[in-house]
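Format notes (please read before filing issues)

Several people have asked whether sequences and structure tokens are stored in separate files. They are not. Every record keeps both together, in the order shown below: the sequence lines, then the token lines. Line labels are part of the format and must not be stripped during preprocessing.
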Amino acid sequence: MKKDEPGSKKVEKSIGRQYENRKSRGFFEKTGLFIAESSKSVGKYVAGKIATSLIIGLISFIVFKLLGINLAWLLALILCLTNLVPVIGPWIGLILVAVIIVFFNPIFALYTTITALLLQLMEQFLLLPLIVGKAVNLKPMLIIIVLILGSIFFGFWGVILAIPIAAIIKIWYGIFVKDHYKDNIENE
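Then the structure lines:
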């Protein structure tokens, strides 16, 4: 048997190397896709969070202006900026707004607190699941569950990182696990 004939050791090694290269190339392509998709998803999460914060700021400004509060722009800005911090930020904003307004007009403190509370509830249970969930391609109910689990198991950091981590896990599953099973079924 010659060295280059089919069945020779040299040809078998060459075919084996080509197979391994194709396999590893597929892995590297999937890894690159995973990194790109994860980066895009985290970017969309941040953009969605900014969008919800701007909506909360705008609505609170309008409501505070309608209530006749002179510091409407400042209070709305505080709510908008603190809203960027997931889950706990809106509550910090609510407390800050209540403390600031109580020094200027104690009667308006109740109105602003109720308004800010309603806005935060709207953001937590409506805007966040819909806008951010759509941005990172997660179902609204899954976002609420992920936030609850993140807060239970990892506290403050779990709340902040829960949605991006859930989005990344979904991307990882879709690229590595789901595609792996799909490739195995096609090869059989």
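For reference, the curators noted about this record: Residues 85 and 160 are 7 Å apart (CA to CA). DSSP finds five helices and no strands in the chain.
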